């Protein structure tokens, strides 16, 4: 009967199928000799027949012993062929690869050992089968059996050496998809396998791995959170190498293509991933410059929350995020700012910035406000459409913030919006300017604590940044129209008056009010007077500042018929204190001045004596009395007063009408106080 396994003898076939390794090994040695002889004679048909028998009748058999024998024999055949294995490489390797997925642990082990021997002999001729080998290896490294895993590590190292030797013929385009398919693996050994291959190939000068970085970057970042420190270390090292290569030559890779991955990873809850991603963003902002601007909204989403980090554990992340913010701001501030700003998606950027103005930390809010201010400064026309959306946030959230720094920066932004819009004649004109101050007054009226704690700071800053005269005139015009909430109006007038009299930034405004003979100054005085009439003592202060001493003396006389409340006495007390301050140094000198035929001095002296008679004998009383004792007695003689020489008589202001207005307003306040008392009784 003909031998079905020819040219392999029946005895050899039987030995290859034996359950003992020794007999299978002897049979494999016999096949090795047989193949060597056929190869020497170039009997390639016979060799192919032997390989076919081993593949079909042994390696694919259901008998595990026959599989093991076939695997050993295929390796032996390859050893016999030496370099000529290349002729039969696929016929030898493919059956072995199939056995690597066998359910029998020992079969998988023998398959890995057999494949190692075949690859060792084949060397470079194995490269065309690299995708299949790599796929099989990626499974072996996660094998639950340690012996199989050890065998896979030996095969892995050998294959890497061969790839390095054959780097010129290695198909990187075919390799990358294999990596991409496995880069998101969660198994630590699979991750280690992938990282090691990328690292090895990246170290080969002839292979340019960084070109393919965008395809594997996400997976590498995910590996940074692996539980094994060794995996983290390997991944960090690899990413550092890639970044070093990019910094040396930014053109080797498409930087913008990687930005979205970095932005997402920069928002990770894992500190290592977050820091690494933000570090990369920082370097890319410096390298790509203008090309990065279009990713600004995403970058803001990633870095702005990091500015709120506290404590040493996250200080490095905060510092890195701060650096990104600074570098990004420099791109829209330097010589190429106009070109860079064209790449800015203003709508998306403003949407992100607006969101972070609400419920954010102080450092984050300040950074956002500085960005908003800068954008209004540089692209005010484009930003005008965003003013209306920003105003509610700036007014309701930022101005009410517990941090003075946030409040001050918010006012800077508001002032810039008003200034740029008014100067450029955009839709955001002076009516909007007035609307802004009306909204501010609404806030003050709704929250008295807010007015007490922040009112002076806000108004002073506005006057510093905007036109102080226009601020005061507008406030006065708005408050003058108030007919119902008179108590708030009076409080607001007192606040504005105190700021006017005590703030160094309003020096010019005070000087303007001191010369009511000037038509512009007179107009401002009249406007303020009509509003200041809501607070009697503030009206007195305004007239003293404007050197309307005759009118002051007339108002003081009127006080005798007014209700003297506790608030009134407190205000008078403050006024006396102010008279002794540097602001009113010129007023005190008037008391000994011969100007206007002594008229101003005499009217002022009478007014101050009147105030002295109104207040109780407190410290303020003693202070004012001591001052008046220094005044010559003849200033107070009525016969010496020449009304036509007074300051008021030399202006075009109708003081009679103003006096009547003051009386009406004060009467209105008196009626409202009486009504309120009646309500309180019930």
Automatic annotation (TrEMBL):
- Which UniProt key words apply to this protein? Membrane, Repeat
Cite the Pfam families for this sequence: Vac14_Fab1_bd, Vac14_Fig4_bd
Q: Indicate the segments forming the Vacuolar protein 14 C-terminal Fig4-binding domain, all copies.
A: 450-631
Q: Where in the cell is it found?
A: Endomembrane system
Give the matching InterPro entries: ARM-like, ARM-type_fold, Vac14, VAC14_Fig4p-bd
Record carries keyword Membrane: yes
Q: Which Gene3D superfamilies match?
A: Leucine-rich Repeat Variant
Q: Which domain of life is it from?
A: Eukaryota
Subunit (UniProt): Forms pentamers. Component of the PI(3,5)P2 regulatory complex/PAS complex, at least composed of PIKFYVE, FIG4 and VAC14. VAC14 nucleates the assembly of the complex and serves as a scaffold by pentamerizing into a star-shaped structure, which can bind a single copy each of PIKFYVE and FIG4 and coordinates their activities. Interacts with NOS1.
Q: What does this protein do?
A: Scaffold protein component of the PI(3,5)P2 regulatory complex which regulates both the synthesis and turnover of phosphatidylinositol 3,5-bisphosphate (PtdIns(3,5)P2). Pentamerizes into a star-shaped structure and nucleates the assembly of the complex. The pentamer binds a single copy each of PIKFYVE and FIG4 and coordinates both PIKfyve kinase activity and FIG4 phosphatase activity, being required to maintain normal levels of phosphatidylinositol 3-phosphate (PtdIns(3)P) and phosphatidylinositol 5-phosphate (PtdIns(5)P).
- Family recorded in the similarity comment: Belongs to the VAC14 family.
- Tell me what this protein is called: Protein VAC14 homolog
